[in-house]
Amino acid sequence: MIRAIIAEDEDSLRREISRKVMGISDVKVEYITNEGKDLLNAILKVKPELAILDIKLPEMTGLEVVKNIRDLLPNTEIIFITSYEEYIKDAVRLYAADYIIKPINYERLFNTIERIKRKFNDSSNIIEVRCGDDIKLINANDIYFIEANRKKTFFYTTYEDFLSNTSLSDVYKLLNKKIFFKTSRSYIVNLYKVYSIKSVNRTSLEISFRNKNKKAYLSKKLYYEFRNRLKDILNQPVEMKAN
């Protein structure tokens, strides 16, 4: 079950969106509003997995709301629904899951919500790793990537980065192979977190992530398999530059 908040200032459209989203299985609409400041307060209180919002809202725009919550709630997925095409670059910078131009294509909206549902449902497992003499519990959904370096394993996650003495191969056995991909001998990557890929030398590509200023690397031998896995799981374009 994922929790959603909806914000739209046009009354009839707000009711229509709410009715249709409420009809989707495993989605619970927690709050509905028609203005920006109320939306911001609701998101900070509920901490939903999904927010569906217009850009032009009274008091505070949808873009301003997302800018205010993005660092605090990096896992909240955002779907913008708007009449304005000119804000799409701003939405991309805020890592929006989708940007839908009115009149609403509901098939596209439903497909995006289904993808978001899969992300949270597939990633909800808790794994255990060793940190010195202690055992640390991690929600796999919070992992961006894992790196092996000098017989140590580094975890890069939503809330903290830390060192583990569980080997990379042992960690990989614990992870859901539908959403985690071993991009080289030294890296395991959460496919849902990938933002872009670019070539850095003859053998490697650099992987950038949503809301994380760290890089992982992909062997060029695995590029086409990696690209196909991304397309399958995300069902949307990913910026890739292999040359």
From TrEMBL:
Superkingdom to which the source organism belongs: Bacteria
Domain called HTH LytTR-type: residue spans: 127-232
Record InterPro entries: CheY-like_superfamily (IPR011006), LytR-like (IPR046947), LytTR_DNA-bd_dom (IPR007492), Sig_transdc_resp-reg_receiver (IPR001789)
GO MF, any single term: DNA binding
Chaperone in keyword set: no
Gene3D superfamilies: 3.40.50.2300, LytTr DNA-binding domain
Domain Response regulatory: 3-117
4-aspartylphosphate modified-residue sites: D54
Stored PROSITE patterns: HTH_LYTTR, RESPONSE_REGULATORY
SUPFAM superfamilies: CheY-like
SMART domains reported in the protein's UniProt record: LytTR, REC
Keywords for the protein's UniProt record, in alphabetical order: Phosphoprotein
Keyword Phosphoprotein: yes
UniProt-listed PANTHER family: STAGE 0 SPORULATION PROTEIN A HOMOLOG (PTHR37299:SF1), TRANSCRIPTIONAL REGULATOR-RELATED (PTHR37299)
Function: May play the central regulatory role in sporulation. It may be an element of the effector pathway responsible for the activation of sporulation genes in response to nutritional stress. Spo0A may act in concert with spo0H (a sigma factor) to control the expression of some genes that are critical to the sporulation process.
UniProt protein name: Stage 0 sporulation protein A homolog
